[in-house]
Amino acid sequence: MNLTINELKDALLNAELSDFLQKAYKQGVEDCRESMKFELSLPPNLRKEHVAKIFQCELPTVEKIIRMDGFPKCHALSARYPRDKVLEWRDNNTMYMNSRLGIYVSENESLRLLRA
Question: Which of 45, 48, 89, 94 would give a disulfide with 80, using CB separation of 3.0 to 4.6 Å?
Fold first, then answer.
């Protein structure tokens, strides 16, 4: 079977792209597992220190975050915040937080900090 140079280049490119995409997929799955491991290690009712870890900020900034409109609070316990609702609020309000506080951290940066 005789292949032209262009056909060989195309075949090599396809093989390299396939390998690259498989590695990217595996890395994405691993990053998701790391993120979920951190989130699931948190207690169901968060303290301010936990909120600071989630948002990767200092406690004075946490004070500003917990006072934002719609931030979930636990009504049965004072100074506690329901983990699942806080994580959902974070996912739905990152642009709002960025405009109000300028503390938005990208998902990639968040994963890098978790690994450190």
Answer: 45
